[in-house]
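Worked example (supplementary).
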Amino acid sequence: MKNAFPEGLRDRISAVLADSREARSALLPVLQLVQDERGFIGPEDEIAVAGLLGLKPVEVREVVTFYSMFRRLPAGRHLLQVCTNMSCTIKGGGRILDHFRVSLGIGPGETTGDGRFTLREVECLGACDRAPCLMIDKTLYSCRTPDEADDLLRKNAP
Amino acid sequence: MEEKPLTSAFDPAGARTLSAYRAGGGYAAARKAIEKMTPTAVAGEVKAANLRGRGGAGFPAGVKWGFVPQGDSGPKYLCVNADEGEPGTFKDRYILAHDPHLLLEGILIACYAVGIQEAFIYIRGEYEELARRLEEAISEAEVAGILGKNAFGSGFALDVRVRRGAGAYICGEETALLESLEGRRGQPRLKPPFPATVGLFGRPTVINNVETLANLPGIIARGAEWFMGLGRPGDGGTRLYGVSGSVVRPGVYELHIGTPLREIIFLHAGGLAPGRTLKAVIPGGMSSTILLPEEIDVAMDCASLTAAGTMIGSAGIIVLDDSVSMKTVLDRVTRFYAHESCGQCTPCRVGTSWIRRIVQRRNDGRPRAGDLDQIVRLAEAMSGRTFCPFGDAAALPVLGLIRKFRQELEA
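After joint prediction of all chains, the assembly is encoded as:
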């Protein structure tokens, strides 16, 4: 079985598998580990995961494509997620997204040419009291104005 | 001063550690349950407390536990629904961020009552930092001999694991959650059989929301009668009302069940910004039917909101003032459901995307006569015709918006 994963990642995957009643139930945690390590989940990663879990590659692909947080293409160093669901829209989330369109020159789903940022427009992040919400990588921020957005990027996404 | 049994000890600065939690009396209720009560007595107390599920459906938790078959010696599971994704809902985040041990103690009590030795906390992928904090709290409790092989030296064993979702609203539906935990696309199962008999890995499974479980320590420590006294007949306790949108003080407010909606908005959440007037309120997360200003003198409990033609759902209240266009509201609602439909049932897959295309065309300045009637027909064709409640959740808010704001939406 061809396997492209480095040793550290393989060890982490083995630990998850050892802790799972059925190998298939480890699929989401394993895909999360792969994406954390590699930045995305490519076709060769899907095949490698399928091999480790005893699944068909298509059984991995159908899961990767179902969940919106799995990425099938390389992303920028930092992931920016702007919520434009109801409470965030009311509080100006659309203005934050428009600001990024202009200042970064990319739309949702795109990555800047220098590979620094990938931008996503997302549904409710579960923090409506802090609307409008911006997630930078894995941390959530309240971001009310374009100036605040620039500030947050400077401090948290070098 | 109203009692706030869930949140009064929360530290605004962050999550309570195990030692802080125990210093405030934490884990005494679980210990009491395990050392001094039979599982049947614990379940009976919870049933008597009329604790309704806080996730959205409002089903009495004690009754749900009662559906798990007795005398089956094989594995049974508890799945904790921490997949908080209903737009306008952020109360479970509040518990997870401030008091992970309150949830863990609730899990321990529920598992003891039902005879479960393995629990999974399914938490939405976007809450990764909270998931890490939960894992730390689980380790703390294991080291202290509270979770793991031998709770309080009683011989009761319980393993708790955290599993993260990956960005699918539908996984908050209980059978989709099970599919996801098993490593599949989150597509709901046809019921029956219900998870209580055939759930995770085909075994009897209880699925409870975070806030539901967080109420258990209080019920065991202070009794069903006390808990019922906080709420309404058949609907005991307090609720974490999450208020967002056009209010001065958005936030989570723990208040007795049955607190009037108007009071929550205007007293607790500080009302509207100066000069603004109220236009509408979504009372229980995006899936609930919108209310007009003259409809908000309603008690926030399951029965009263159902009688008012809507539902309490997740108690996530979204307030809309006169600056908000109902076209924007319809746009966000229809975009959300089209995006999140899992695609399994044709009426929902086709209905949500067709409705979305009509709304999008109108946004693009190409309205046609009869559009709104067409949307109504599509929504009605979806409602009640799908495996899971998503079809209704997508249809009802759209129908409510068109019924109550037709003139503005037509314009």
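Two points are worth noting when inspecting this output. The mean pLDDT of chain B is 96. Chain B has three domains: 18-230, 239-321, 326-410.
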